[in-house]
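Q: How would the structure tokens look for this protein?
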Amino acid sequence: MAVARTGTSERGGTFWTEGETISLLLEREHQIKSEILEAGQASIENARRLDENTIDLAFMASNWIGRAYHGEAPFQQPIDIRMVAPANCGAMFFITRANSDLRNIRDMVGKRVSIGPEGSGMVQHIHTIFGALGIAFEEFTPVYLSFEEGGKALEEGEVDAQWQCPYPNKVMKAISERLDIRVLEYLTSDLSRIMGDTKFYRRSIMPAGFFRGIEIETEQLAVVNIIAAHARTDGELVYKYVSTILKNLPELAKINPLFIGLEKVFEELNSEGQKCIEFGGTPLHPGAIQAYKDAGYRI
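A: Here is the predicted structure in token form.
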């Protein structure tokens, strides 16, 4: 049986669960088994592993693929990376204990904040967001922990807030069931400032009841997560991977709620063309282009 080596994230994270879900259908549809590989630094690590030819497909956040393609920091040289498909568009957010006096993003100044593994893509989101808000890293105490470790630290009072990846994810669900939490909010002017400085974020409404402890609707930032390949990645493999996603969008969303709404991202292809998903100017892989054409999208 053919094998697709797929770089994801830490076990239980957004990319890991998405990779697991797609692998189930890929094996059913095309008898291709996925080797799901963890990555503590997720996006950045996966781009580098594509370059090293140790994986075939990589889950990444859309803000990193263009940097990898152009060789911008933290990448030391251009990587011949290619866009394959969007994976999801999910809200990222900060949580705190329900009895905390933290309410707003700016309340974290002077506090201890768990922001993800050092060097990871999630940490770079903090640099981007706080940079847009004029908050220097010296103005708070960054704590570099995985999502699971960060949740435990919040529960034990070792940090005051934690940066969380898109929900639903198993780690966040477990935290909310163990601990009474609250999500920090943005000022409307701060959200507008961040959106004006970046092109890869979108506004996302986190509804009341999203998970235990969410009692009011809040507006958060969302990033489009994507699947990438190297230019050398076999075109037939990429074609079958994309075809599997497009053919099974409703089933993907049923198995893993992270895929809910993904069809809307693909629909943009018909109105805006392929450039709408060529994030950072990274071209689509030829195998992906053929899959979109065969599925009836206007590419």
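Residues 14-30 form the longest helix (17 residues).

The chain has a mean pLDDT of 93.

Upvote if useful.
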